[in-house]
Amino acid sequence: MSDFFAMHGYAAYVWTAYGVFFVVLAADAVMPILRRRRALTQLRARLKREAARKTSAGNNATGSA
Amino acid sequence: MNPIILWFHKLGSPPYFYTFAGRWLPWLYAIALLSGAAGFYGGLVVAPADYQQGDSFRIMYVHVPCAWMGLFAYAFMAVNGFIGLVWRIKLSEILAMASAPVGAAFTFITLVTGSVWGKPTWGTWWTWDARLTSELVMLFLYFGVIGLYGAIEDTRQAARAASFLALIGVVNLPIIHYSVQWWNTLHQAQSVSLLAGSKIDARMLWPLLTLAFATHVYFFASVLARARAMLLELEGGKDWARALAREAA
Question: Which of A19, A48, A55, B188 sits 20 to 30 Å CA-CA off B180?
Answer without folding.
Answer: A19
